[in-house]
Design brief:
Layout (H helix, E strand, L loop, with lengths): L1 H10 L2 E8 L6 E7 L3 H8 L8 E9 L2 H11 L11 E3 L2 H10 L8 H4 L10 H20 L64
Antiparallel strand pairs: 1-2, 1-3, 2-4
Length: 207
């Protein structure tokens, strides 16, 4: 009975967390809130743009995570690194004192309640993607056409051009390039016999 009450309480609980990262400057912490396991949130923040993972320093269990987070952010406005980010220039110990003295909050470690919270799998996304791809692949195979018989043509023969071929009349006696050679009339100057090759194409102002 006691365990069921605890599980129900945890399902309805929200978390305001404090995280740090070894890649950041000293005394830079992230203060946010989540409805899920804070460890899961830390895994979500560990992207390709961050070289080291986030560490959950402590968390506050509450029923109003968003409201409490906003109150804390307003109180730490002078320490905020950027207005569009939840990072603050304050040490973990100083933040603990502020939350304890100004907000009368009780902070707990993730290790104290991790056994009672949903498990976090770092490869959960990749497993979901693999399942989706396997389902899609099986669907494609089931809808594919029957396998070709031994007497059928190759797969690429289906895309081969089988239309009529336009061949030049003289292709039997000439080379492949003769099919594209110009066979029209040649306009030659009357006195071309006495002119050189380049003189035939020279501009004559007497015309």
């Amino acid at each position: 009975m006691q365990s069921s009450i605890t599980n129900t309480k945890l399902l309805n609980t929200e978390y305001v967390y404090c995280m740090s990262n070894a890649s950041f400057c000293p005394n830079i912490v992230k203060v946010g809130w989540t409805r899920n396991n804070p460890a899961l949130r830390a895994n979500q923040l560990f992207t390709t743009g961050v070289p080291t993972p986030f560490v959950v320093e402590f968390m506050v269990m509450t029923a109003h995570g968003y409201d409490l987070e906003r109150r804390i952010h307003n109180h730490l406005a002078r320490c905020r690194v950027s207005g569009s980010r939840e990072f603050f220039n304050i040490s973990v110990s100083d933040l603990r004192n502020v939350l304890r003295e100004k907000f009368s909050l009780t902070m707990v470690q993730l290790s104290d309640v991790v056994d009672q919270m949903p498990k976090v799998h770092s490869n959960r996304k990749s497993a979901v993607r693999k399942d989706k791809w396997k389902s899609f692949k099986n669907t494609q195979l089931s809808e594919a056409s029957p396998e070709p018989t031994q007497n059928s043509e190759l797969m690429f023969d289906r895309f081969r051009y089988n239309g009529p071929l336009f061949v030049s009349k003289s292709c039997e006696t000439g080379s492949m390039f003769d099919n594209f050679r110009y066979d029209g009339p040649l306009f030659v100057c009357k006195s071309s016999e006495s002119l050189s090759t380049f003189d035939r194409f020279r501009y004559d102002d007497s015309l």
